[in-house]
Every structure is written in structure tokens, then in C-alpha cells.
Amino acid sequence: MKEKLKEIYYSWKLSLGYLIPAIIRHLPSHTLRKACYRMMGARIAPKVSMFASVDIRQPSLLTIGRGCSIGPRVLLDARKGLEIHDNVTIAYEAIIWTLHHDMNSKDFRGKGAPTVIDDYAWVCSRAIIMPGVKIGRGAVVASGAVVTKDVEPFTVVGGIPARKIGERKEKDLQYMPYSRIHIV
User: Fold this and answer.
1) How far apart (Å, rounded) are the C-alpha atoms in residues 8 and 11?
2) Which of 26, 30, 100, 101 is catalytic?
3) 144 exposed, middle or buried (CB, 10 Å; 0-12, 13-18, 19+)?
4) Which of 159, 162, 142 is nearest to 150 (CA)?
5) Is 101 assigned a catalytic role?
6) What is the pLDDT of residues 55-68, one digit of tens each?
7) What predicted TM-score, i.e. pTM, was given to this entire model?
């Protein structure tokens, strides 16, 4: 009986962990959405633009630095820890993972690692960042890329799996994505 109660408790806790962020992401106020995520433990700096429909898994393990822009329908999986540093742009429908299933596990066990996105990085639309990856300062992940390995600073990567396709010429970056957009 005790085991059954534990199972029910865990199931409810897990359900609320998905249900509450699902409700928050549909709130009409940009400020209210961020305030709710902060109440759930997310560390979100000032001047962060987080569009409606951003899906956050485990807000308590999420850190977002100053001046970031998180676009519509972005998925931020922070279940193993996700750090997004200052002035990062994450565009429409990008997915950042920290946890996935081990295909070689007999019980399909989850495995993952913290993911870090450094200052001035730009994750373009529909790019996917896999668990444990570090995106370096000023790096650019092209649209549709699947990043499975760390990306060096100021490197441009694209493809599946992502590989180097160029370099960012300007290294003295000083912009703030937050100030360049219309807040929804």
C-alpha cells in the first residue's frame, strides 16, 4: 500500500511539473510568464524576452542571462541543468535538450548532462542542441542543424550532425537581442 501511495504521489508531482509550465506558457503577459517561471525556481535575469509558447521543462534548473531573446515555440529542457548566458538569441522552434533516452539501455533509461550556451550565441530556427553540449561565445547554429558536440567560440555550424561551415568575422560583439525586438 505504501509503495502504491508513493507511485501515485510521484505521478501527480510529475504531472504538475508538466501541467503548470504548460499553463504558464499561454499567459498573455510577457512579464507575468517570467514571474511565474521565477516562482518555480528559474533564474531569469532582467531584460529577457521570452515569447509566448516557450516550453520549459524543469524551470528550477534553468538560468537565463541578461539581454536574451527566446523565440516562439522554443523548447528549453533544463532537467539536467541549462545555462543560457548573456545576450543569446534562440530563434523560433529551436530545441535545447539536457536529457534523452539511452537506446542501449534494456529499460530505456534516461541519460543526459547539463547544456551551456555562452554569451552572444545565436541558435537559429528549428536547430536542435543535444544534451551535454556547450555552444561557445558568439557561435552560430544554423537553422535545422543538430548539434551533438561542443561548438567553438565564433564558429558557425550547420547540418546533421552539425559541422563547421564558417566563422563569425566580428568578435567584438556588443548588441543586446532583447532591445532589438518587440516584446509580446
Assistant:
1) 5
2) 101
3) middle
4) 162
5) yes
6) 999 999 999 999 99
7) 0.86
